[in-house]
Amino acid sequence: MDIQTVKLRYGIIGNDPKLLLALNKAIQVAPTDLSILITGESGVGKDVFSRIIHENSLRKHVKQGRGLISVNCGAIPEGTIESELFGHVKGAFTGADKNRKGYFEEADGGTIFLDEIGELPLAMQVKLLRVLENGEIIPVGSSTPQKVDVRIVAATNADLAAAIRNGHFREDLYYRLQQISIYIPPLRERKDDIPLLFRKFSSDVAEKYHMPPITLTEEARQYLMNYPWYGNIRELKNVTEQVAVVETERTITRQILENYLQYVPEEKMPAIVTTANGQTTAVSDRELLLKALSMGQMISEMRNELNDLRNAVAQLAKGMPLAESRIIGQPDYRIIGQSDYRTIGQPEHQGIRAAEPNGGDRQWSQHPNIHTPAEEEDFQDSEVVEEEPLALDEREKRAIRLALERHNGKRTLAAKELHISERTLYRKIKEYGLNV
User: Fold this and answer.
1) Span between the terminal Cα atoms of the chain, in Å
2) Cα–Cα distance measured from residue 339 to residue 355, given in angstroms and rounded to the nearest whole number
3) Cα atoms found within 13 Å of the Cα of residue 218, Cβ hemisphere only
């Protein structure tokens, strides 16, 4: 079957080279049993390509089963997806009062289309890999493998390469699925096809509801071609049907279209991500929201760390003890001296000696918050030297420098003592120009 015949049979409109390349590849690989991975944004027609592949294969004549079965992996709850795909035996779980075939067994001898394959849980990815490698499924509650002869066509609008890097998708499954890869371009990459699709959809509406056809002005035509169409063909079809039914004026201007489309300036559009294989995809609103929330959380954590550091430095500058300090993470030991207000974390069951101003030393109590009477008397008699108030930034700088000196420049230990992240510590070292 040639491309023109396929386009007519499946209602595919367009002459863009990328679209024709995808159609030609689908026709060429249809007679084989190779697994196929269809990629492209939501709304480009991945389900139509799955039908093209199945109905042009030898499996279209399957006697048993249902031929082509389409499964949306993202729409099935994680707790039931194994039973849905592989079936279960009687008594496998509460409510399993009889044996039930899964989608793979129903499609035996035919083709199964796994849409949104990127949403498949990791535990199920392992079991799907077994089907691809051995052609075996194990129903829930059974221990006996069962052979099935199923061709898998998978589809996704996600960047699976990124999902692999993030640990959300198995690399071995990815390469087993994409024995053949078919990329369907979004509408914004095939602008010349947009007016053709608009005319097709509007003609269908006019014929169905016995209405006069609508036409576009040149300005409206250009507006349609330059619109981003993140919903792709599905969005264009919906807008066309609305305009054709609602508008009494049959010549459609740009002003009329603007009532149905809210143009997004380029600088405010969702990011277009280029994947490793050169494909482009729009980052979804959900992904953008998650990234924004993650960034906001990181900023909030950095702000809290900075506030903790400033509060601790302010207390140290006043010579105040830091009971159960958040900086060190251990009870504090205040050094009694003229102007040395360092804090020392000391393991339990060890005494602490603090340097005296005259070069001697003093034995402290082993309990961090209880001093002996002699120590209290000495403390009252100690000479207090008033220091000039330090700016908050200088206090931070001094606390960081002291922590680094105590740990011989080891930033990991210093950051742990200051109860801040290494990232924050590195930034502060650079900001204050500390040589460590």
Assistant:
1) 72
2) 11
3) 0
How far apart CA 221 and CA 198 sit, in angstroms, is 9
Which is nearest to 128 in space by CA: 179, 93, 68, 82? 82
Strand-strand pairing, 111-115 and 68-72 = parallel
Non-local CB neighbours of 413 within 8 Å, separated by 6+ positions: 407
Instruction: Read off the DSSP letter of residue 87.
Output: -
User: Which residues are CB-contacts of 392 (< 8 A; sequence separation ≥ 6)?
Assistant: 310, 313, 314
Q: Specify the 3-state DSSP secondary structure of 179.
A: coil
Give the list of residues 6+ apart from residue 29 with CB closer than 8 angstroms, or none.
36, 53, 180
Contact assessment for residue 19 and residue 161, using Cβ atoms and an 8 Å cutoff: no
User: How many Cβ atoms sit within 10 Å of the Cβ of residue 330?
Assistant: 16
Written as six digits, the tokens of 82 are 């194994």
**Residue 139 burial by Cβ neighbours in a 10 Å radius (0-12, 13-18, 19+):** buried
Predicted confidence (pLDDT) per residue in 103-148, tens digit: 999 999 999 999 999 999 999 999 999 999 999 999 999 989 999 9
DSSP secondary structure of 315-370 = HHHTT---TT-TTTSS---B--SSS---B----TT---EEE-TTS-EEEPPSSTT-
Helix 392-406 and helix 422-432, axial crossing angle in degrees, nearest 10 = 120
DSSP state of 187: G
| Segment 293-327, tens digit of pLDDT | 556 666 767 777 777 777 777 777 766 655 444 44
CA distance 349 to 113: 67
**Alpha carbons 119 and 75: distance in angstroms, whole number:** 9
Tokens of 101: 């075939």
CA separation (Å) from 237 to 9, 178, 202? Answer: 19, 30, 8
Nearest to 118 by CA among 18, 46, 219: 46
Q: How far apart are alpha carbons 336 and 339 in whole angstroms?
A: 9
CB 16 within 8 A of CB 44: no
E strand or H helix at 66: none
